[in-house]
Design goal:
The two termini are 24 Å apart. Strand 3, helix 3 and strand 4 form a beta-alpha-beta unit. It contains 12 helices and 8 strands. The protein has an 8-stranded parallel beta barrel, surrounded by 6 helices. The protein is an alpha/beta fold. Helices cover 43% and strands 15% of the residues.
């Protein structure tokens, strides 16, 4: 079945208000002339402090959706430095990135905590972008598929088939994030196909056909066309290349079915 691609920009800890406004104005101007029916779903995930700025920039641009880079699954309480889903709702956030390797590695987030977040996000009617990925050591040991299957199985525990179908998965080989190295498109496609098989086993072939699975890891305008030509890759979760309007717009164009 046809799955609408997603090009999502994860700004990570970059851009103050002024920089966020300048970048978003460039992106908005860049997509104005593009055919909305042919475009991928475009998602931008700024820092929490720039959510309002980005929301304001895209208020008249329905081609772009807003995402948050993280969330705390609790409704409120003594969680210093955290942000709740109700707070994100104030900014019309549609997607929330969870399980990114940087959160797992730097902040010791467990599979169980990521699952808790996913369930809370879905309960609020938002869409989780659930990240998974292996280290270079795990890939060299030949345990990539088993490791990803474990991450995905734990992330979706207790989630209904209908909610799973709405969710998004982002496969990000840790060794390719921010390194300039990109997993070969054919191998990335094979790996994402294995992830889709896990979803089919957990739910059904129909859910596996519906769920969108992105590739992330040094995705650039020079790689996106080959990546999007693969049967299993439904778009990209973009890091560094999303921090410049021209490169991000080129990525959006590269995910479109015709030359623009």
């Amino acid at each position: 079945m046809a799955r609408r691609p997603i090009i999502a920009g994860n700004w990570k800890m970059n851009n103050n208000k002024a920089a966020a406004k300048e970048l978003m104005e460039g992106i908005v101007n860049g997509v104005k002339s593009l055919d909305a029916d042919l475009m991928p779903e475009v998602v931008v995930a700024p820092t929490f402090t720039a959510l309002w700025q980005v929301q304001d920039c895209i208020k008249n641009e329905p081609k772009i959706a807003l995402a948050a880079q993280n969330v705390n699954p609790n409704e409120s309480g003594a969680y210093t430095g955290e942000v709740s889903l109700d707070m994100l709702a104030d900014f019309d956030v549609k997607f929330v990135i969870i399980g990114h390797s940087e959160r797992r590695q730097m902040f010791n987030e467990s599979d169980e905590f990521i699952n808790e977040k996913a369930k809370a996000i879905l309960a609020k009617g938002l869409i989780p972008i659930i990240c998974c990925g292996e280290t270079l050591e795990q890939r060299e040991q030949g345990v990539t598929d088993a490791h990803l299957a474990s991450q995905i199985t734990k992330a979706f525990e207790g989630i209904s088939a209908s909610d799973a179908a709405k969710s998004v998965i982002a496969y990000e080989p840790i060794w390719a994030i921010g390194t300039g190295k990109s997993c070969d498109a054919v191998e990335a496609n094979r790996t994402i196909g294995e992830i889709r098989k896990v979803i089919a086993k957990l739910y059904s072939a129909d859910v596996a056909d519906k769920i969108r699975i992105l590739y992330g890891g040094s995705v650039k305008p020079s790689t996106i066309v080959e990546q999007m030509a693969q049967s299993e890759i439904d778009g990209g979760l973009i890091g560094g290349a999303s921090l410049k309007a021209d490169s991000f717009v080129e990525l959006i164009k590269g995910a479109m079915p015709v030359s623009v």
